[in-house]
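dumping this here before i forget
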Amino acid sequence: MGSGKKEQEKNSQKYFYKMELKTKVGLLQLKIHKNKDLNIKKAVNKIRYAAKKGAKIVCTSELFLFEYFCKTENHSNFKYAEKIPGAITNLFCKLTKELNIILIISLFEKKIAGQYYNTCIIINDKGKIISKYRKMHIPDDPGYYEKFYFTPGDLGFKNTKTRYGEIGTLICWDQWFPEAARLTALKGSEIIFFPTAIGWHPKEKKKYGKTQLDSWITIQKSHAIANGIFVVAVNRVGYEKKGNRKIEFWGHSLVIDPNGKIIAKLKSKEEGVLVCDIDFKKVDSARQHWPFLRDRRIDAYKSLIRNSKND
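structure:
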């Protein structure tokens, strides 16, 4: 009798995940300051605001506790790394349980001395960390010296079931790689969240700014269309300077539906909290009418694992 009841509850829980056909997501587009405590206080207030507006899944931008320290290579910046779990995650776990929401936050993780990751965690409505994703693609561009700080992710691509939908998380530079979005979608995700910190080098903005921003939006639309999935990108705003390195973060946090339509967005220079309705029936509809997942030819894709035609 007891074991039968447990099995019934287990099956009921599986079914429960499928019952939520709609949800609301909340995006925090914030200006990040040098003061960590101020950033935490602001994030907490905005998370509360998003929850009050009905958001059930709330996401921060990338590395929201600090100004973007990867503008330079400086060993002193390793002091910013956090243990997971740790004091910061404990704070946000408590908040998430209080508000009865799902929370996605991006942190600079210290696994052990000498091994650091750009990490995203999902906290459920019970205040428990239920998923950890470590950024797989690590950039190394002027002003984005992430290879100096981060070990490439070792946890693979993930899908996480929550009571408000199945969630995939990727981080910033990951959003330029179609393979990352496809593998996350194949895991079962209905929404991919991209905590992001991307912007213009001020000297390049006049010549390349519009093209760079358009490319960023286009690649995310393509992920949504090719995989029949919602895409949520959460970027910071503001002008940050370190030595002679300057970045103007371009905001434009947005939500894209499985047909590639932008259904909600924020402006480029303003802080804000964006709350948007998500209808999961659109995922089924898009995949039934545009059956890209059905028509893949995985038998012919072996060359994808080679670096070039000469390998």
